[in-house]
Fold these 2 entries.
Entry 1:
Amino acid sequence: MNKILIFVVAILFSSIALATTPIDQRMADYNPDGSLIFDAKRGEDLWNQKRMVDGKQRDCNACHGKDFTQPGEHVKSGKVIKPMAYSVNKERFTKLKKVKKWFKRNCKWTYGRECTTQEKGDLLKYLSQF
Amino acid sequence: MIKRLTILSMVTLLGLGINTSVFADGESFFDWLLTTDSRNEIKPMQNELYNEECSDCHFPYQAGLLPEASWKKLLDPKALEDHFGDNAELDDETRSAILDALIADSADKSRYKRSKKIMSSLGENEAPMRIIDIPYIKRKHHEIPDKLITGNDKVKSLSFCDACHQKADEGIYDDDSVVIPGHGNWTW
């Protein structure tokens, strides 16, 4: 009886795991107790927010490009940046460590400060639509 | 005669054994004797963490292209926050692991040909932040007209080693492996 129960629970859990995308998992990482509500519109506004540095405009699209299904190009080095959209780039958002690293670097570079947990969640929510 | 040769080779072996400074770190006498690699080009980067982290943004320059003091300056936490205009911050664990790997094979310790040439072109306490500021590297590129580098859309800067050096990832930088985009082979 116990074995059957374990089996059923295992199946249930695995189906939950299958249903969530890496980006859902990352949003959960930033919201472990579920107290935050992430908003795609707020994320979009932040994504498009512009800042002038040394007379040059900086925003997310400068390197990632406007079409998230296409690769971006680093504004300075010209290095190709793989598409942001999980629908075409299955590697995207799969590693929390990478997500954390790039949020830290890119928020500082783009906005001149680190993003708050709320902002990171909003950005993820926005990106989860693609 | 044979006896004399034996003695001579024994003495040579002993001499080399004592004077281990001729070997690169971790290189045994037989590695040194039996491979010519260690007297060629630049040691390829085998540190996976370095290759993965750094090549996210740029060509993973081999450790043997700069001396230890340069790598220490470059991998300083503050310096990484403004890494040639970009934020390249690393968590401390990753940063020190990468720095250790770079120091282990830095130009001042390497036996590889180009590392030695790099070092002999630098003054005693010179530790440039940019590989293209090394006198040896400058000298090797000074005959190439600007229009093929900065004026070339597919190259842009001398910093992009692998734009022209087709075997740069293997640490090979000889003239034979150079193909300048839109121009072709480079011959002196």
Entry 2:
Amino acid sequence: MSSATLPRIGVTIGHVAQKLKTGGIEPSRRARLEVLRRIVTRCVREERVELKWNRAVEARPYLERLIQLGVERGPLDEYTAEMMEWWLPERDLIVKMHEVIVPRFAEIQSPYTSLYRLPPKRLQQFIQNKREFWKRYDIGILEIDKNPFPPVLSENSAKNEESPNLLNLLLTDALKNNLEK
Amino acid sequence: MQTTLRLPVVYRKIFEFQGDQCYRQQFEDSQQNPQWFQIILRILLNFSIIFVKKYMEMKEKVDKVVVNVHTDDEPLPVLLNRNISTSYHAFNHLSKHVADNAVLVDVQPNIGGSYTSCVNQPLQDQATIRKIDFDSSEFVNLLNDAYWRSCALVTAAILKESLDVNLEFTIPNIDVSSGFFHVDVEGLNGNALSRDELNTINRYAKSFIKNAKDFEVVSIPSDLSDEVPSNYIVRIGDHVFPSSGLVIRSTSQIGRYSILHSKSSGIETVSVGGVSLPFSQPTSSYSWGLIVKNALTKYQKSSSS
Amino acid sequence: MLRRSLGSLRSFSSKCKSEPQTASKSSNTIRKEANLVGHIAAFPEIYPDFLQSPVWNRRNALKEELERRDMLERRMNIDIPEFYVGSIVAVTSSDSNLGAKEHRFVGICIRREKEGLHHQFTLRNTIEGIGVEIMYDLYNPTIKKIETLKLEKRLDSDLSYLIDALPEYSTFDFHMEPLAHPAGTPIPINETKVKLKPAPWTRRWEIFGCAGIEDSWSGATPWFKRKLQKTKVNDYEKYDLVAAYREGSTLEHEVAVQKQIQKFENERHAAGLTRRRILRSAAAAK
């Protein structure tokens, strides 16, 4: 790596890698990367994806770093090219990354992605002896910013967040006074 | 006085109907205090004029009224007893959950302008009613004021139970933005409560609030406004207070609650301040700690009124 | 509810980067700042001792700050030149047990490890047919002088495999004349590929993917090859972007440290105590 050091990525990141369930693949570090690769590929193609929350949290730094490599170093850099090739096995996605996604974030600081939490979902797993087995999943939305879709949070939600709701009033006041000290 | 003679009859009849000992207790207490006696007398009489006289006749014939309860789909028509049934009863036709969550009611009568009332107030006319809970964004300021007032009233009731029944309270109008509520107590000889006492009272307050006591409300007719300075009379448990505005449905709607501090605010009066959050607005203990700390600082700084 | 209460927080900490919607609006200030400071591109290689620990829960801002001050003070007393793994370095350290009271060792730098005051580098040479490796603490106060005899890099950032290489690759003349590096030219990369002695080796060099070893695969026995295929191939690890990010340095940290070094230098120069410069880069010099 001859190029200069990169800035931090502006997303929360744990200090160790988290294990992920790998479905059909035998669990290993390779399998984990494979799961993440699928997510990153899908996210670059679709720009907004709905995932299990823990996977979205884990995949976000990878996506973020990949976009950052594109933004900071460009397609000609050797390391960037190698990473793009591995993380985006579909050729057209590498082109899309360099020609569509990266230009959106030129001269802009990280984060380039957003993560939202959705209400948990209950899904039926299987039926055994006429008994239904359900499981609860935490769901997140991972998206690349400045995508053409309508925003996840509506315009009003910003207003709601400054509602004169009692808890909000008291907490705002408390924090303000706490900071002034 | 002629009214005195009529009183026991009316009085007995009211409570025959309501089957409640509390008003009786209050009434007997008030006989020592001539001024209160007059007021309660008039209220009761008014009760009789507006509602109760009819209740007596209702023994044979109860007047019915149809009230529409606002829902997401179509309004639900509910048959109620005029001047007896409250919005709480109406909401119970929808579900108990809705009824328990209702904090205030938006009433749109078929004749006349709409107004907001308490959940435990009897309905008088045909109207469409809509519940207001802590999640509604429309009446937030009204809700906050009602909640703050209710908390002050609960504080007064708790102090009355834990200290002395003969205490006198004034409940000042405090804006929510000040961060705390307070009540002024007369009858403690100007002695502020110590930290230990406040801790004990706070412990008692928890059980008091947990008991889910309803706020029972009587609105005072305008012809009595000269004698009674307030618009409503509120009963919480065994205690009756005048109130200048709307109150919430029940103490079960109070979540975190803490009496913070007391200080003497005059020769005779002691002011007791607290802070609270609704049950439906839960918060972490960290945030609550920040709120309490802020309220305490602001209350201690506030000039004694 | 939580979001609402957090929403009220936002008005005070508008810098929370992971908040949606407020994201991606700030322009790239850190790059501008780096240009302003004159950030040295090869900072992590020249000053590995000023980096943060790759283990995140060992990072401690106060400890790092205190160590950095001690390191700067030490660098005012001794000239620590720029050198890389692969450079030929001479270290003179004092030794009370020797007649000359000092000991000079010349060798190729094969490792630089650890951060802060504990930074170590290892020199290797062959003396009378025996390989000798000496590990020096960079901030050891008994070190009197460090000279870079030949400034160059090798193909790898860790040359530990020289221990199993033929001795000719780690034999250097003790009386070697220092070679001056022309300022402003990039650091030359010595593309020597070493031949290893026959196995067994101290470590399984063939699985580390070292670029500076010539054909380690053909010499391996079939038994090794089978085993390697089953378990040991982990060349996919280099694609773990975030693992690399966790271990690597960040521009923010480097710019902050470089600023601190510049400020320290300027203060000392203004006081007229010294003319010594800490921050130097042969490749970036004008």
